[in-house]
Amino acid sequence: MFEARPDKNAFLVKSYETKELISKYKKQLNYDISRFVDGLSEIHLYEDKYTGYQFYYPMDIFGDSAFYEHLQKFDWYYMPWKWEHEYLLNQLDVKDKILEVGAGGLGFIQKISALNVDCIGLELNEKSVDKAKQLGLDVRNESIQAFAAANTECFDVVCSFQVLEHITDVHSFLASKIKCLKKGGRLVICVPNNDSFIKYDEGGILNFPPHHAGRWNRQSLNSIASCFNLQIADVVYEPLQEYHSTWYVRSTSRRLKNNKLINRISKIISIDKIINAYVKRNQSRIRGHSIMFIYKKE
């Protein structure tokens, strides 16, 4: 399970022309991804028929250090403190030993380390690791697979925020995280929810390679529990955040205008203004960008 490959257990969802992806990355993020898709006219999105996990093929299209260093120039890319950090912080005990896999933003590990919670971070971005050292944080330039070999059942909580969607070797990644957990420990995963409003524009250009390797939703996250013999302790939907409200309005408006009647009405009344007013009144009740699963190791 979660061995992403286009075999008899997966079906083709959609194909995308690489020239379109190159154009969108260049236009929206001023970055040329040509070298990642050299020789390819298309990439393909498949879905595993047992887990519901959707993955891109070929599977070797993923960003390198230069790609991520470019994205870090945008202040929104590594936000130091987000909804998911605050939620998990409130679930922790000061005695918990924490492992954060993909700690590049440093915000979470910095905050909980300041609260004297024992935390180790793993990160493959060398610049982030160097910055962590300057801040006195225990962040190591090591893969979870290598780390797990010497750290079996050492942690009360193993967490990753907005990381799993970047991973191509999903089974090995998850198995290694679980290996690090003590019995009764919690595995915490927060990812973009591809059943949320982001689905109306397929999550935007960053939901495609070389940034994302796959797409997750509640169904596929549910299947992690059965595949790895875990209990689901909690499922939490992110409330719509202020910094995503424009995206929500734009994508919802575009979807509604696909209806011929609403499209005609929109020429008389601003649909965007109506949606904006709705968001202002109901923002805390609208499901936002991400979903968090907390699993318990039996």
From TrEMBL:
Stretches that traverse the bilayer: none
CDD domains assigned: AdoMet_MTases (cd02440)
PANTHER family on file: METHYLTRANSFERASE TYPE 11, TRANS-ACONITATE 2-METHYLTRANSFERASE-RELATED
Name of the protein in its database record: Methyltransferase type 11 domain-containing protein
